[in-house]
From TrEMBL:
Compositional bias per record (Pro residues), positions renumbered to this chain: 1-12
Lineage: Bacteria, Bacillati, Actinomycetota, Actinomycetes, Propionibacteriales
CDD domains: TM_PBP2
Region (Disordered), start-end ranges: 1-22
Membrane disposition: Multi-pass membrane protein
Name of the molecule in the record: Phosphate transport system permease protein
Chief localisation class: membrane
Natural source organism: Nocardioides massiliensis
Stretches assigned to the ABC transmembrane type-1 domain: 82-309
Alphabetized InterPro entries for the sequence: MetI-like, MetI-like_sf, Phosphate_PstC, Phosphate_Transport_Permease
Record has Glycoprotein as a keyword: no
TM helices/strands, residue ranges: 29-54, 74-106, 118-137, 174-193, 230-256, 290-313
Length: 322
């Protein structure tokens, strides 16, 4: 006869199953704490910058005309600078966005692997070039080289306000500044677009090709719809880079505090960052507070742009997880 089998007693109602707790490794604890400290430090630094700009820039709201370049209010003083900042950034995005998307598509879908890796490294190295070098190149090489083009635009398309002229003799125009900013924003937009294009599901691409689509039609039907939010976030991050650039614009532009859409004239609007860099050494008293207040305006715009970009990136990543 076989021995009777005994069954373990059933757990009492409401009793919880006890499971051994996993011990966290010391390295995980230290790394987790370090990341929290780093995140908190960034938030504290960001809050400190915002508080400093707000406190130091507040006296500019009641500054008189002698500290506001003859303007009666701070808004009248800051508006031309804000206009120049947005105009230069818009020109940079109009040039950089299609170029960056084209380069990213070439790297991810068209070029052979060796050439794609080489082009990708070259584009990434553009981000390591100092902004002063870009400014010197734009003022001494790109600007003079573009003078014949500016003259042609002024002579043949002068009826358009963008090319009304007279054309600059040295090439230090808003269009030159926009092209320099486009080259500086190109690595950021290209890198993000390249990664987003490479994450397109392979099955989607193969399905489009199996239905008889060409490679370009496959990109339009499979890659672009999947990457739309990523492209938008890349463009907005590039916009944040263009908005905050200082030395390159200061070296390229013969800037004035005016509102003008003329892109080929030597009389070009200044940007907030360039105005601060050029005016701060000679500013005293309330004049310093005025410059700090314009810095606060630039800080708020840049923060809003980057915050919006991060929201789009987070939404895109959440969609990829799903």
């Amino acid at each position: 006869m076989s021995a009777p089998t005994t069954t373990p007693p059933a757990p009492a109602p409401g009793a919880r199953h006890s499971s051994p707790r996993k011990k966290r490794r010391l390295g995980d604890v230290l790394f987790g704490g370090a990341t929290r400290v780093a995140a908190g430090t960034i938030l504290v630094a960001l809050a400190g910058v915002a508080i400093f700009l707000t406190v130091e820039g507040f006296p500019a709201l009641s500054a008189d005309a002698s500290h506001l370049a003859g303007e009666s209010t701070f808004v009248a003083y800051a508006w031309p600078l804000l206009f120049g900042t947005l105009l230069a950034a818009l020109i940079a995005l109009l040039i950089a966005t299609p170029l960056a998307i084209g380069v990213a598509l070439s790297i991810s879908h068209y070029a052979p692997r060796r050439i794609a890796h080489f082009v990708g490294y070259v584009i990434d190295l553009l981000a390591a070039v100092p902004s002063v070098v870009y400014g010197l190149w734009g003022a001494n090489v790109l600007g003079p080289a573009m003078v014949p083009v500016y003259r042609w635009l002024s002579e043949h398309l002068g009826f358009i306000p963008l090319f009304a002229g007279p054309a600059s003799g040295g090439g230090r125009t808003m269009l030159t500044a926009g092209m320099v900013l486009a080259i500086m924003a190109l690595p950021i937009i290209t890198a993000i677009c390249r990664e987003i294009f490479a994450q397109t599901p392979r099955l989607h691409e193969e399905a489009a090709l199996a239905l008889g689509a060409t490679r370009w039609e496959m990109i339009k039907m499979a890659v672009f719809p999947y990457s739309r939010s990523g492209i938008v976030s890349a463009v907005m991050l590039g916009l944040g880079r263009a908005l905050g650039e200082t030395m390159a614009v200061a070296l390229v532009l013969s800037a004035f505090r005016i509102v003008s859409f003329d892109l080929v004239s030597g009389t070009a609007p200044s940007t907030i960052a360039a105005n601060i860099a050029l005016s701060f050494p000679e500013a005293t008293g309330v004049g310093v507070n005025v410059l700090i207040a314009t810095g606060l305006v630039l800080f708020l715009i840049t923060f809003a742009v980057n915050f919006t970009a991060r929201l789009i990136v987070a939404r895109s990543e959440k969609g990829l997880v799903r």
